[in-house]
Amino acid sequence: MDKIVLEGGTQLRGEVELSGAKNAALPILSATILSDSTSVIHRVPNLQDIRTMVTILESLGAVVDWDKDQGTIQVDPKNINKEEAPYELVKKMRASICFLGPLIGRLGKARVSMPGGCVIGPRPVDLHLKGLECLNVKISIEQGYICAETEELRGNEIFLGGRFGSSVLATANVMMAAVRAKGLTIIESAACEPEIENLAHFLMKMGADIEGAGTHVIKIRGVDSLHGAEHTVIPDRIEAGTFMIAAAMTRGDVLIKGVDMAMLHGVNDKLAQAGVKLERKDGNVRVTVPNDLSVVDVITLPYPGFPTDLQAQMMGLMSVTNGISVITEKIYPERFMHVAELNRMAASISLEGQSAIVKGVKHLNGAPVMASDLRASAALVLAGLVADGSTEVHRVYHIDRGYENIEEKLSKLGAKIQRVKE
Ligand code: UD1
């Protein structure tokens, strides 16, 4: 197992190029099986989750050609003949659930291992199942597998709002099945994340008839067949936010290239309130900190609110900002595994239900810490950038699921960071 070793105290300076968004690439790759001709997907990041996605595609019968240097994946789904996403692969990546909709759309049946809870808390799939049942899919749970079957997908009106708001991958699954359903489907309370819009654009290039993606009401008129298409994945807004926060924490001067700031309103707003200067120019953004930073309270919400996937990193920033801030998690109320690890580095954070009370400290101390999940591990790396002395982040396979070449990108910005084999 690898670990990341950091020496804190360097201001990040220079330019960084964003990778394609993992959370857009995953459902887009699963959607390729809806047609029986080849699709070509560009700007796919080279990440562990994408490798798992490719393994599942191949196990279903697709032929996949991945040019890792170009970031292009070609999927020939002509011979898709299996309907099963097995436990061994689903347990590695919960997002494997996004094969449910495409398999039903393509084969009329699917057998996808039920994803369990994970370290960020329980993650139910009721909205996925409810949405598909509304499309005339019969669903049963057998020996830990979601077994779905339909004689004919039929369009319907579907309300997809849940206890914690809309669901990103449930919206993706229902949309991917509905493109092949008879008649009109209207998804109410759909997730409006940019990754859903990007998926819809790909489906439309394949011949789907979709209106309203990116809003809370999506209308889909089913079509008889879809064809392969060429598509480029959007830049990763969570990676962009992570680098913005890293630049702010180190009081650096970083130009983030290829960032779509329209996707980051909820983040920009909070960073600007904290005193981070974000200057946009030609599709890039320069991040600097001209004066002292102030604390801000943050509540995570579905898009366009502040994303849960940047909560841990923002907590890292607030833990070294003078004052007291409250960070409230509304999407995954248990997503606080990073708190104990940040406190091991001398942060002062206490938990009060769904909120973390963060008392800014002057210095963090380097320490050996344990990554618990993808975004928590990013927060620990950022903390290591500003901590006194050396920080070792263990279990970095979590970070490899979602950040492409993280240590290379941070090194280029001047960070003292290296990966060590254990
Ligand atoms: C996606 C992202 C993940 C991000 C999350 C929330 C991908 C691959 N992953 O995950 O990085 O953190 O959105 O922005 O895109 N819920 C239910 N029932 C369901 C489904 C979800 O109650 O059937 C709840 C979840 O427990 C959570 C909330 O709804 O509280 C939002 O989850 P959801 O949007 O579904 O997350 P994912 O799509 O799995």
Task: Walk me through the structure.
There is one protein chain. The chain is α/β, with parallel strands linked by helices and 422 residues long. It folds into two domains: 2-18 and 235-421, Enolpyruvate transferase domain (UDP-n-acetylglucosamine1-carboxyvinyl-transferase, Chain, Alpha-beta prism), CATH 3.65.10.10; 22-232, UDP-n-acetylglucosamine1-carboxyvinyl-transferase, Chain (Alpha-beta prism), CATH 3.65.10. 31% of the residues lie in helices and 25% in strands. It contains 14 helices and 24 strands. It has a four-stranded mixed sheet, covered by helices on one side. Strands 2-15-17-16 form a four-stranded mixed sheet. α4 (100-107) runs parallel beside α6 (168-178). The longest helix is centred in the first third of the chain and has 13 residues, at 48-60. The protein is globular and about 65 Å long. The mean pLDDT is 96. Uridine-diphosphate-N-acetylglucosamine binds next to α1, α5 and α6. Uridine-diphosphate-N-acetylglucosamine (UD1) binds at residues 23, 26, 95, 123-128, 162-164, 167-170, 191, 195, 308-309, 331-332.
Identify the notable features of this structure and list them briefly.
14 helices; four-stranded mixed beta sheet; UDP-n-acetylglucosamine1-carboxyvinyl-transferase, Chain; binds uridine-diphosphate-N-acetylglucosamine; alpha/beta; 2 domains
